[in-house]
Every structure is written in structure tokens, then in C-alpha cells.
Amino acid sequence: MSNTSRYFILLLLCLGSVVAKAQDERIIADKAMLEMRKNMPDKTIAMNPVTDFDCPDPSVVKIGDWFYLFGTGFPIKIYRSRDLCNWAFYRDMFPGPNPHDPFGDGKLDPMHTGATSKQNIHFWAPSPAIIKGKVVVYLTLFVSMENDRQVVLVADNIDSPFRYANTLNIGTPEHPTPQDGQYFRDDDGKHYLVYGDVNSKGNYIRELAKDGLSYAKGSEPHYITTDYEGGYIFKYKGTYYYYCSKNNYNNPSYTLCLSTSRNLQSGWSEPVPVLTSESSDAILNGAGHNGEIITDRTGRMFMVMHAHCEGLIPLRGTYHPRPVILMELKDIDGRLVFVDHKGNPTKHPCWMISRPQF
User: Fold this and answer.
1) How far is CA 159 from the centre of its chain?
2) Given this model, what pLDDT does residue 8 score?
3) What is the mean pLDDT of residues 169-193?
4) What is the mean pLDDT of residues 62-74?
């Protein structure tokens, strides 16, 4: 072996040692942050995750002084908070015993999925909104890749029973898997549903009727982009921001992406990653499938989303629980950018955030 070869091997060993040491130091730092989160002394700073419970695909609606949080699963649990940081269980969205009998009245499959008694009905990505004084929730019901639909439910108020109102999308050969519907209201008062079709690789927006319980007469779906999930639209200074997620939700590589347009129904840019895991071994990782952007009384903007936090909630088999995190957004040179608790731009989920003020 030549001296050059020996030098090259020695260099690789040294680099490997440096990388391993850096990874070990970062893991130790992450564990320290997780421990600090349990007793955060600084009341101007909040620690992620902001929940100690699993709440995938989080979505929030504000009613009075309270924020109400909905997430994937059955039963769909509703939590509430005054500050987006401290959440407590409020109620179950459905009183029934199982997904086949969600209303508890013995009328099996009341939302007409056609699922057999041996098929599970998954309740995914509820998106709540206040429309004409009612609490309206858009919900994905997934039975299989061949049986998928989006329904809408309505309640008179947050304490009232939710009633099935309508089925908006049913899978077709062209669009077999309509999923992850998110509500959007534009400045002109028009209502829209943003949804993805994971199997046919499309994401769309379509205008809703004034009560939000059906599509507007004559409306058609408009294509946004392809191969993403959990789409959400936010309008800022005349630009529409479309946040969406890619890769597998159970993996640290899950990534939040952004597409923009000046026109709601066309002209969207190709999505680019804006929030991704710092490394594959980061304890706080896999952030995405965001809900709403909420503005506090000082004008600061915060986005809710889920992430993994290894060691916070026990694994369920191979499933990595997804608690809720908050990330602040700031206008930098006229564009919304994620920032850390010091206001510095970041492309990674942060342990610390500057606490919202309400």
C-alpha cells in the first residue's frame, strides 16, 4: 500500500470520527432540550412540541378566546388552548363507539362509505372552519385506495353534536384518492376547499358554496401542483402561499414545501423545501402536514404542524407518534420565512420558539 493510500484511509477514519462525535454531541444537546422542555423557566419562550400527545395532521379554529385543535384518528379528539402552547382535552368530535357507528345511534356507516363490517374506516385530517356562525369540518374517510372520499360535517357550535352534511369528493378512476381537504377563505369572502389526490399525483382547489356544505354551482377543480399532501393556502401581501408536505409521514425525511402564486387558480410555482429535519438522527424531526397560520395580537405569525419527537411519546409498533409543534413565520424582504426564537431564519424545526401573545 502506498503512502498516499495510507494517508487517504487515515483521513477517512478521522473524518468519520469527527462526524460521529458531532452526531453524538447533537443527540446529547437534543436530549438536554427535551429535558428542559419539561420545566421551561422563561415564560417568553415556549418549547416544542407543544403537546405531549399524538395529534397527526393538526388543524385549528379560533372561537371566542379559545383555539380548538383537531387531528387525525378515531375518536377525533378536540383540544383547546388560549395561547397555542398549553393544550387540554375538551371533547370527542363523535360520541359513537367506533368508526362504523360514529354518532352512537346504531346506524352503521352513516356517511355512506360502503365499507364492509370487516373494513376499517380511517378518519383523516379534519379541517375546521367557522362559516355563517356554524362549525364546519372537512374530513377524509379512507377505507382503501379504491374507496376514499371527503365529507363535510356541521355543528351549531363547538359544544353541539356534529351532523353529516354532504360528501364532496368520491374517488374515481381519474382521481381515486381525494384526501386532506383544507378550508380557505379569500379576501373577497369566497370559500374554497384545497385537497390532494395522492394516488393520481395531483393537488387541487375548488370553490365552495356560501354555506361551505357543497361546491359552488358551476365550480370546477383547479390544479395547483403534484405529488404532495396536507395542502394549506395562506394569502399575504397579494401572494398566495401553498404549504404542502412530501415523503412518508412516518419518516424523518418528511418535509414541508412551499409553492406560491399571484393567482389563486393558476400560475403556481414548483414547490421547494422550506422546513426539513436537521439530520436523520435528530430527535425533533419529520415536521409537516401543517394547519393554519395564526396571527397573535402583536402581529407575529405562527403555524401549527406535526413532527416526531423521539422519546416524548412511546412508539406504537413501527408508528412514530406525531405531537404538535409551532413555528414562527416572519416577513424577510417581503417574503414569509420560518425563524427561530431569536428571529433568525431557519430551515429546520426548532426546539424553542418565541411565545405567542394573545
Assistant:
1) 24
2) 39
3) 89
4) 98
pLDDT at 5 over 80: no
Q: Residue 7's pLDDT band (boundaries 50, 70, 90)?
A: very low
Average pLDDT, the chain: 90
- Bridge partners, 273 (sequence order): 257
Q: Residue 73: is it exposed, middle or buried by C-beta count within 10 angstroms (0-12/13-18/19+)?
A: middle
Longest dimension (CA), the chain: 81
Dist. CA 232–CA 95, nearest whole Å: 28
Q: What percent of the chain clears pLDDT 70, i.e. is strictly above it?
A: 91
- Residue carrying C-alpha cell 362509505: 113
Q: What is the 3-state secondary structure (H, E, C) of the chain?
A: CCHHHHHHHHHHHHHHHHHHHHHHHHHHHHHHHHHHHCCCCCCCEEECCCCCCCCCCCEEEEECCEEEEECCCCCCEEEEECCCCCCEEEEECCCCCECCECCCCCCCCCCCCCCCCCCCCEEEEEEEEEECCEEEEEEEEEEECCEEEEEEEEECCCCCCCEEEEEEEECCCCCCCEEEEEEEECCCCCEEEEEEEHHHCEEEEEEECCCCCCECCCCCCEEEECCCEEEEEEEECCEEEEEEEECCCCCCCCEEEEEEECECCECCCCCEEEECCCCCCCCEEEEECCCCEEECCCCCEEEEEEEEECCCCCCECCECCCCEEEEEEEEECCEEEEECCCCCECCCCCCEEECCCC
Q: State percent of the chain over pLDDT 90.
A: 77
The three cell numbers locating residue 320: 412514530
